[in-house]
Amino acid sequence: MSSPTDNKHQFRASTRLIHAGYDPHEYHGFVNPPVVHASTVLFPDAATMRRRDHSYLYGLRGTPTTDALEAALDDLEGSAGTILVPSGLAAISIPLLAFLSHGDHCLVIDSVYGPTRHFCDTLLTRMGVEVEYFDPAIGAGLKDLMRDTTRVVFLEAPGSNTFEMIDIRVMADIARAGNAVSMIDNTWATPLFLRPLDFGVDLSIHALTKYPGGHSDIMLGSVSATAATYTRLREAQMQIGINAAPDDAYLTIRGLKTMEVRLRAHERAALRLAQWLEGHSGVARVLHPALPSFPGHDLWKQQFKGASGLFSFVLDGGGNREADAFLDALRIFGLGYSWGGFESLALQVDLSDRLFAKAPTEGPVIRLQVGLEDVDDLQEDLEAGFAAISAIG
């Protein structure tokens, strides 16, 4: 019996999330895939082993569990192949290592995730790769930065913490015209709200730790690739010797089933709080691309099908003292890294490493991960934070 998603153009996203990647009738009718723990795989005979002509060769190269998640992500991304790795940062580092060598030039958007920048400034630089950061607002001017040695253009949309928007198609086309591979960190949007390969990007990167996992209890990453880039990506993964654990893959498969329902709830709550914060006297600016007031709003509307639960706002004046008072007064919003789980989180953003996308001058930047709690409770919690600032005097 065929899987309901064999006809890839028949069903909408929420249906595909439920059925993609695994056909229950291929495993006794159980609706969830098996969790296969494996290292050694036995071959039926020496000739088969010599030819490596077997469904599975070794646990590192994949199991039915990881295959099911890779297939589901390919279905969602429209990709030719996906690799799984143990973290979102690994999903960034593996493709960079796959497509860069000594003497190459790598262009990286300046609003990139901080650990991405750290990887570029340390390991890539020690490898002899020249890393150059560019202004997210550069647009078609990116063409002027391309060199004969440019091999990778690394994007993130929206920008990390400050949510700058870019024209993805323009930048992907510039990279391809210059014989470079384009990669994008697509964690904020998930494949439900943005399919980068549809805009000409070669590699779509996710921290599956976030919304796909959804419950703040796994570490996992993925890279989904075009047909032209997949083989080299997979080879690099195997050369480094890294893959995902079956339990984490299974939990992510389970998380995908409810991701759209959760993501829409995050979206509604975050937008409501962002709109409320826009009118608050203690706020200088709200950095949320779905707000019409946001400078990149038109680009967001043209490219994205929704907004997730992560955004920032700028306090109106003050510094670390005021930011600490605000954060320490919160009781529902936890103080922690990561996002995409069921719980709300807050932190002060550090933008000191930026070259072009500089920190706002009005005051500290507070990033919110809006979880699945009652929105009125969350609003009251944030109001307590503003009251704590006022109490400083």
TrEMBL record:
Superkingdom in the source lineage: Bacteria
Keyword Protein biosynthesis among record annotations: no
UniProt GO BP: L-cysteine catabolic process to pyruvate; transsulfuration
A GO MF term: pyridoxal phosphate binding
Family membership: Belongs to the trans-sulfuration enzymes family.
Modification sites for N6-(pyridoxal phosphate)lysine: K210
Species in which this protein is naturally found: Aureimonas ureilytica
Coiled coil: none
Annotated protein name in UniProt: Cystathionine beta-lyase
Reaction equation(s) it catalyzes: L,L-cystathionine + H2O = L-homocysteine + pyruvate + NH4(+)
Record's keyword annotation contains Lyase: yes
Gene3D superfamilies noted in UniProt: Aspartate Aminotransferase, domain 1, Type I PLP-dependent aspartate aminotransferase-like (Major domain)
Co-factor(s): pyridoxal 5'-phosphate
Sorted UniProt keywords: Lyase, Pyridoxal phosphate
CDD domains reported in the protein's UniProt record: CGS_like
Pfam family, one: Cys_Met_Meta_PP
